[in-house]
Amino acid sequence: MPDVTIALDSHDEELAVFGSRDQYLRQVRDALGVKVVARHGEVRVEGETERVEQARQVFEELRTQFRRKSPLTSGDVAELIDSVIRASNPEDPEHFEFREGNRAVRPRTDGQQRYIKALKDNELVFCIGPAGTGKTYLAVANAVNNLRKGKIKKIVLVRPAVEAGEHLGFLPGDLEAKINPYLRPLLDALHDLMDYEQIRRYMGNDLIEIAPLAYMRGRTLNDAVIILDEGQNATVSQMKMFLTRMGQNARIVVTGDVTQVDLPADTVSGLADAVDRLRDIPGIGIVTLSRADIVRHPLVQAIVNAYETPESAAALGTYDGPRPGDSPASE
């Protein structure tokens, strides 16, 4: 594995390069995906060749800033890392990396790379795939990135209020308390990308809105990214209503897993219907992610594989193909 060692000249220089409680070291490690070891006045970096070189440039620039007696903050370090990455990929139009503090988000599979490209190239994107493929997470990260850059003025996160096989019954509390269980996955994605105070401030200023699908009727959303999560649980009429909320300089992303529809058995999924109807319209991107794109815990892929066998799908009532022991005559 490629590595580089940077020797530091003094204890003060160490403090400047490492940051308070090694904060800057952790930022470089997390942003670039490298291993960073600091000991005895040296910093050793290990990882992919390109990432090691980027880390070396960051640490050398931190040394330069120290010698100029320029004070640094974690925000300055994040911008420095970002500039080094951009300089390393000046001609890569598909390069995507979202940065929030010391966290960096980048596509980790070919499918996710296609998804990011579709988000850049199209005003309406449908993304279909199993659990753990990053459908919602990447859509939210891309939206926050666009908001930070001033490309849009608002993010609207939407979900159908459909229960997954259980009836929760009466929920106490005000409207926010009642809809919170349905919108929790979207909040989880936000909390992973931004700290609590930022989210509260953005929501208080109406820069981020989270709402159930039923509350979209009658609205026109301009200068916004609108994300519909769990789109497979929208009916055909709900999907039509949602897609026609698009205003000027707006982008819509619909994510879902058509193998996990929680609608009544005789109700057509609005996601599957929309993909079929809109497939050939310019400006609409349709991305299908597979089990190979699952990036959650490794067990998630094994679980999805197990539930997608013909035997398991038949037991769940979701398999329409031939079953073990079937012959052509029995079909």
Short account of what is shown:
The protein is of the alpha/beta class and 331 residues long. The protein contains 12 helices and 11 strands.
Q: How would you sum up the major sheet?
A: 6 strands, parallel
Query: Number of DSSP helices?
Result: 12
Number of strands: 11
Q: What fraction, in percent, of the residue positions are helical?
A: 40-55%
Describe what this molecule looks like in 3D.
The chain is built from 12 helices and 11 strands. The strands form 3 sheets. The chain has a 6-stranded parallel β-sheet with strand order 8-7-9-10-6-11, sandwiched between helices. Strands 1-3-2 form a 3-stranded antiparallel β-sheet, covered by helices on one side. Strands 4-5 form a two-stranded antiparallel ribbon. It is of the alpha/beta class. The protein is elongated and about 70 Å long. The longest helix is centred in the N-terminal third of the chain and has 19 residues, at 49-67. Helix 5 (110-121) packs across helix 6. Mean pLDDT is 80; it is low at 163-169 and 315-331. Strand 2 (35-39) and strand 3 (42-46) form a beta hairpin.
